[in-house]
Design goal:
The protein has about 700 residues and is α/β, with parallel strands linked by helices. The chain has four domains: about 210 residues, NAD(P)-binding Rossmann-like Domain (Rossmann fold, 3-Layer(aba) Sandwich); about 170 residues, Rossmann fold, CATH 3.40.50.261; about 70 residues, ATP-grasp fold, A domain (Dna Ligase, domain 1, 2-Layer Sandwich), CATH 3.30.1490; about 110 residues, 2-Layer Sandwich (D-amino Acid Aminotransferase, Chain A, domain 1), CATH 3.30.470.20. It has 25 helices and 29 strands. The longest helix has 21 residues.
């Protein structure tokens, strides 16, 4: 049995344990069990603790019993730190005793060949008993607020806060806890092999915890897309924002690579599209992941919503270089920096030195370094501008300053914060380099509702993340429902590639426009079809083993008469791939812009891909990915976000294409994918022009 065979049990009992039994309890320094017991004591856990070890009576001052079955009462959580071969029996006894769940820090399970049988036994027992398990092969759970920290590694003293973390990597979680970045964690879960409770289970459970405002998610595998979308919906319901760092790839990417879709919208892009639908932030490394989570947890730093017209953030620094770098990164992220109003410019000209220019971004220069009242007034003036809804303040605090300079740096920092608070506009304070942050400053400003971020890139990413609108939980649940339906469709008996003719017949049934035509076996039957069509014509080989016709010369275009058609038939029928294939005769589509419209069901969730296509698809890489279902309005928005959208919208006097027809075609492709249980449906190219859109080529696969 695998985890995917059943809905995993709810791991919530493991996040609020009032009693704990540590199996394998001992006092051997450095052992997992000894470390767990010490962490529970040092983190202030006030519940009842038992040790389980047949060779001990007492461990670290706690009663020690010979087995889980000997516990005087069921415990909420069983911490398991014994060799892998003994773990399945411990889980069986824990289920029989009626315990709430287990944290298994032991390794040697599915991650190694010799442990796979142990993991299968563990999963079978847990699923049958509706028994939640964290792990195996993970570090465990840190519950900062209640001290229930069943953690198999050294644990520093932590201050409870609003940020939670769920990580498939134990080391990433350990480093996050140990880093000197001033993040106050609420809960940290190292899921390990997530054999029983998957990421989706933990996301739902952690989002329900009181006091959690953001979750940092480190993911190595895609997981169950339907359950993940549902979990993101639960986060949206609870107002919990999510930052995600995803690494690795899946086998689905290898299957999709046989088509252009896999090259331009692989698994990672589909996963990212799901995260963006969830209102989440996409991180590039662990540093950015944690900084994003910090910013997302600071609700007071989010853009103000009381501005009447268009608004955006302002960037303030004492360095022209820093402001230029920040402005460039803002543009890359699609962040618009509004111009300041005439009134604000006039006020700033009274406050700024002659060497400074009142603009956004604003370099107030280092000449005002000690003039804290003027600095506060400058920040307040910018934050009060009717076009400014958020502030990004840069301030570096090097280590090893002399005492008098420490005071100067702190005073300047407080002046910047004071101006932001007086303006009523949410603010983020950031250093230019990640290590130029003072820990005292982080705590001080965090108490004022101003998060402190290390480094310009992370700061701009955080700014963009908290400007993203919150997710629509209903939309996420519709994605989850369709993902579950698609997974069932992928289990149908049909398999392999469809011929282009078969794929186009499915498109015709769905109402997706394709060129008129038909299939033939020889020149005479081609002529019979041609007599029903208008010249010029296209002729192709159509077979289940023919995916990319241009690569093998299996297509002839712009055939103007019967002689052209006869020569084209002879050419194509001479190809090795002609054995068992049909000839597909079609009218040529009118000139237009070539697009790719495709849908795939074998990624984390089914997704629609739309972008510039033809033979340049993989070169241009200009495509949008939309989790299905996708309606016409969302498709139009996606197309408008393409880098080359101007080509579709009357570039240099050319007529605009019919976006509505393109969106209708794309909507039909997404619907057809799921209704027919296809794994892939790729139309490349789709010719779009002012008169409409038509799919001139089609590639489809059942599994």
């Amino acid at each position: 049995m695998t985890q995917a065979d059943h809905i995993p049990p709810d791991p919530s009992p493991l996040l609020s344990a009032g009693s704990i039994a540590v199996v394998g309890a001992n006092e051997r320094s450095g052992s997992y069990a000894d470390t767990i017991l010490r962490n529970l004591t040092e983190s202030g856990f006030e519940g009842r603790i038992w040790g389980v070890n047949p060779s001990r009576k007492r461990v670290h001052g706690h009663d020690c019993l010979p087995s889980v079955l000997a516990l005087p009462e069921p415990v909420d959580l069983v911490a398991v730190a014994v060799p892998a071969m003994h773990v399945p029996k411990v889980i069986e006894q824990s289920v029989d005793r009626g315990c709430g769940g287990a944290v298994v820090v032991s390794a040697g399970f599915g991650e190694v060949a010799t442990g796979r049988a142990f993991e299968e036994q563990l999963v079978q027992t847990a699923m049958d008993g509706n028994f939640p398990i964290c792990g195996p092969n993970g570090n465990g759970i840190v519950s900062v607020a209640d001290g229930a920290s069943v953690w198999g590694d050294s644990l520093p003293r932590l201050t409870p806060g609003p940020v939670a973390m769920i990580s498939q990597s134990g080391n990433v979680a350990v480093n996050a806890i140990g880093s000197r970045r001033g993040i106050d964690f609420h809960t940290v879960v190292s899921v390990g092999n997530q054999s029983v409770c998957d990421t989706a289970s933990w996301l739902e459970a952690v989002a329900r915890l009181e006091g959690v405002r953001s979750i940092a998610l480190f993911q190595e595998t895609d997981g169950d897309g339907a359950r993940l979308a549902d979990a993101f919906a639960s986060c949206a319901d609870a107002g919990v924002r999510v930052a995600v760092l995803k690494v690795g790839s899946s086998a689905a990417g290898e299957r999709a690579a046989a088509a252009h879709t896999g090259a331009i919208a692989g698994d990672q892009r589909v996963f990212r599209a799901l995260v963006e639908e969830a209102g989440g932030a996409w991180a590039r490394d662990p540093h950015e992941l944690l900084e994003l989570a910090r910013v997302l947890a600071a609700t007071s730093a989010r853009p103000r919503t009381d501005r009447g017209g268009p608004s955006g953030p302002a960037i303030l620094t004492c360095s022209g270089g820093d402001s230029g770098i920040a402005a460039d990164l803002a543009e890359e992220l699609g962040i618009t920096l509004p111009r300041l109003s005439a009134h604000t410019v006039s006020r700033l000209e009274e406050l700024l030195p002659d060497e400074a220019t009142a603009d956004n971004p604003l370099d107030y220069t280092s000449l005002l370094w000690t003039e804290t009242e003027r600095l506060s007034a400058i920040v307040e003036a910018v934050g009060s501008d009717p076009a400014i809804d958020q502030l990004l303040l840069f301030h570096d605090h090097p280590r090893g300053l002399r005492p008098e300079h420490e005071v100067e740096w702190a005073d300047l920092r407080r002046a910047l914060a004071s101006g932001a608070i007086d303006s009523g506009t949410g603010a983020i304070l950031a250093s230019t380099l990640p290590d130029l942050i003072d820990e005292t400053a982080m705590s001080e400003l965090d108490a004022l509702g101003i998060p402190v971020v290390g480094g310009i890139p992370a700061a701009l990413s955080g700014l963009a993340a908290c400007r993203r609108p919150p997710a629509d939980p209903d939309r996420l649940r519709s994605i989850a429902d369709l993902a579950a339906a698609a997974r069932q469709g992928l289990g149908r008996s049909e398999s392999g590639w469809l011929t282009e003719a078969k794929a186009k017949s499915l498109l015709f049934e769905q109402g997706v426009p394709t060129p008129p035509g038909g299939t033939a076996t020889d020149f005479d039957s081609c002529v019979a079809i041609a007599e029903q069509l208008d010249w010029p014509l296209a002729l192709k080989l159509s077979g289940p083993d023919i995916q990319h016709k241009s690569d093998i010369g299996a297509i002839r275009l712009d055939l103007d008469n019967a002689l052209d058609l006869e020569q084209a038939c002879a050419d194509l029928l001479s190809l090795p791939q002609a054995n068992g294939a049909l000839l597909l005769v079609e009218s040529m589509a009118a000139d237009g812009i070539e697009m790719i419209v495709s849908a795939r069901a074998d990624a984390v969730v089914p997704a629609l891909v739309i972008g510039f296509g033809g033979i340049w698809t993989e070169v241009l890489q200009d495509a949008a990915v939309i989790p299905l279902p996708a309606d016409r309005e969302s498709i139009v928005r996606a197309v408008q976000g393409l880098r080359g959208f101007a080509l579709l919208n009357g570039f240099r006097g050319s007529p605009s294409v019919d976006l509505a027809s393109l969106a209708a075609l794309a909507e039909g492709v997404g619907r057809l994918l799921v209704e027919k249980g296809l794994a892939l449906l790729e139309l490349n190219p789709v010719i779009v022009n002012p008169a409409g859109a038509v799919a001139t080529d089609a590639l489809a696969r059942w599994d």
